Amino acid sequence: MARKFGIFFTIFCLLFTSSLADWNILKEYKTNDGLKISLKNYCESWRMNVELHNIRNYVVVPQECVTYIGKYMTSTQYKVDSERTIDECILHLSTNCILENDGKDAWIFDIDDTLLSSIPYYKKNEFGGNKLNVTSLEDWMSQGKGTALGHSVKLFNHLKKLGVKIFLVSSRREHLRSATTDNLVHVGFYGWSSLILRGQEDECKNVQKFKAEARSKLISKGYRILGIVGDQWSSIVGLPSAKRTFKLPNPMYYVA
């Protein structure tokens, strides 16, 4: 009898805990007029507010949304969203930019999930549902396994044809320079003017400050930054900025 009761109690606790988790989410995000929302609604709202920069400094993707984020990052919708961003970059270049063709027209790219996809790494880490292990991530980067993002290849090659100088500004650390260069060239990104990585003197700076300072140095050398493309807000906010900035989608992680 005691054994049966124990089994029943265990099942009850599991069901109750699961129901309670769902109930907390739905209750917290129930609309004022009593409209019931699904877990998909909640996760889509969370993703959208990450992209709008309303949700910041999160450490992990909410466990309830890991499956949803994984499906998005491997979906046609992610590709379409990214392609639209790149199309807007090309439109900006053709309608709002007068190229001087004096070697000082410039464009800045981030690297991770802007040029090189890290989805293969994050697929093994719950698409951001696991807390980031920097050592593990850098080990993966050092193996040069990043795959080219096709939408960014299109913009990269378009800029080269226009004669625009391309600068890569990444929060990757200096010891990854060789692996990063090899990975970029191997998947078709070559012909850039400079690869700017974080040195020892940048270790205590947040990424936003490091990248803003990199832009400042380029501008002091006479470069006109026509645009910046990155998947993190820290790649595009802060002063000095560019004529236009463009944000690619990426809800898997947040870099301040």
Give a verbal description of the structure.
With 256 residues, the chain is of the alpha/beta class. Helix content is 46%, strand content 13%. It has helices at 2-28, 39-51, 66-73, 76-95, 119-123, 134-142, 150-162, 177-186, 207-220, and strands at residues 105-109, 116-117, 147-148, 165-173, 194-198, 224-230, 244-247. Strands 5-4-1-6-7 form a five-stranded parallel β-sheet, with helices on both faces. It has a two-stranded antiparallel sheet with strand order 2-3. Helix 4 runs parallel beside helix 7 (150-162). The radius of gyration is 22 Å and the shape is globular. GO terms for molecular function: acid phosphatase activity. Keywords: Glycoprotein, Signal. Residues 1-21 form the signal peptide.
List keywords for this structure.
256 residues, alpha/beta, 5-stranded parallel β-sheet, two-stranded antiparallel ribbon, 9 helices, globular, disordered N terminus, glycoprotein, acid phosphatase activity, APS1/VSP, Acid_phosphatase_pln
Unreliably modeled segments: 1-27
Number of helices: 9
- Write the element-wise H/E pattern from the N-terminal end onward: HHHHEEHHEHEHEHEE
Helix fraction by DSSP (H/I, runs of at least 4): 40-55%
Q: Bin the strand percentage.
A: 5-15%
Spatial arrangement of strands, main beta sheet: 5-4-1-6-7
Class inferred from helices and paired strands: alpha/beta
Q: Note the gap between the termini.
A: 56 Å
Keywords: Glycoprotein, Signal
Organism: Anisodus acutangulus
GO molecular function: acid phosphatase activity
Signal peptide: 1-21
